[in-house]
Amino acid sequence: MPDIICNTSPIQYLHQLQLLSILPALAGRVIIPPAVIDELGEGRNRRMNLPDLTRLDWIEIRRPLSERAVPLVTNLGPGETEVLMLALELDNAVVILDASPFHFVSGVTHKQSEWLKHKGQRNQINQKDKLNQKA
Fold first, then answer.
1. Which entry of 38, 54, 77, 107 is 20 to 30 Å from 32 by CA?
2. CA angle, 37 as apex, 62 and 77 as ends, to 5°?
3. Domain count, the chain
């Protein structure tokens, strides 16, 4: 199963719909960057109905190792930015964002967009190869 890297809003909506528990059933690991943990904490401080992910044993909080994605990202929040940085670091991951593709692509050059598209296609091929090897 692929890993899931998730941004703040999808976590919020799944929690409020009482469906947050579906994430570990869909993934090898559920990875959340620290900026998302911080954003959820800020929301709880404002009395919003948001989960404390640090209390869930199936959540892996992981800080991006590098900032190589930072030049790709403009006008996104810290959570979205760290999610994208982690996505570039991990080969077998699915990203769950709520940002419009147009919002994201607006800050990405054509060459960078093609590289991200190629990386995603390569990951899909790798996943299919792994499934075929298991069969």
1. 107
2. 95
3. 1
CA distance 70 to 6: 18
Q: For residue 39, what are the contacts with CB-CB under 8 A and spacing of at least 6?
A: 8, 77, 78, 79
How many Å apart are CA 116 and CA 67, to the nearest integer?
15
CATH number, domain containing residue 119? 3.40.50
**Residue 6 DSSP code:** E
**Percent of the chain surpassing pLDDT 70:** 66
- Paired tokens of 93: 């991951």
Task: Tell me how many degrees the CA angle 83-86-92 measures, rounded to the nearest 5.
Answer: 110
Range of the domain at 116: 3-134
Residue 122: DSSP 8-state: H
DSSP state of 37: H
pTM score, two decimals? 0.68
Mean pLDDT of 61-81: 76
